[in-house]
Amino acid sequence: MPLLEEKVYTIDDIYALPEGERAELIDGHIYYTAPPNRTHQKISMELSARILEYIRSHKGKCEVYAAPFAVYLDDTTGTYVEPDISVICDPDKLDDQGCNGAPDWIIEIVSPASKRMDYYTKLFKYRTAGVREYWIIDAVKNQIFVYNFEKGDAEQYALQDSVKAGIYENLVIDFSKLDI
Prior knowledge:
Strand order of the largest sheet: 3-6-9-10-11-12
Largest sheet: 6 strands, mixed
Structural class: alpha+beta
Distance between the termini: 55 Å
Number of strands: 14
């Protein structure tokens, strides 16, 4: 008996989704995403605001985007993701559709349905694609995992700690001062 062929999805399938339905495309598989909860949104807003404030006050060229924001990670596998926060420092990667290539810094905020994706699948994809720094924030576990792929470092913090961003000389985010 022949094996059934598994459907391989493309970016066209993402574009064909009904309005308001969110999904990501990784290695030809579609992963649907649920709406984030309130804590998730508060963390995203607080961090995005702090990062944007830092960039503006230092007259930086990087741009920060919160989800939903399209990141076309690579052409080879057609990987399309919507990280919770993306920081892009190369303006040539940006167009009206989103970011083409790896952002410099990605932050994912873990939700119950995204644990495996954030901790494993995306960690590998982001490192392979050339993301310089990746943070995983897990409010339930009270943990922040910081991966600096350029230096090959990985560190773990609590949600009350101060965490230095590796892509900037002196950006430190004091999580104890965030309203989350």
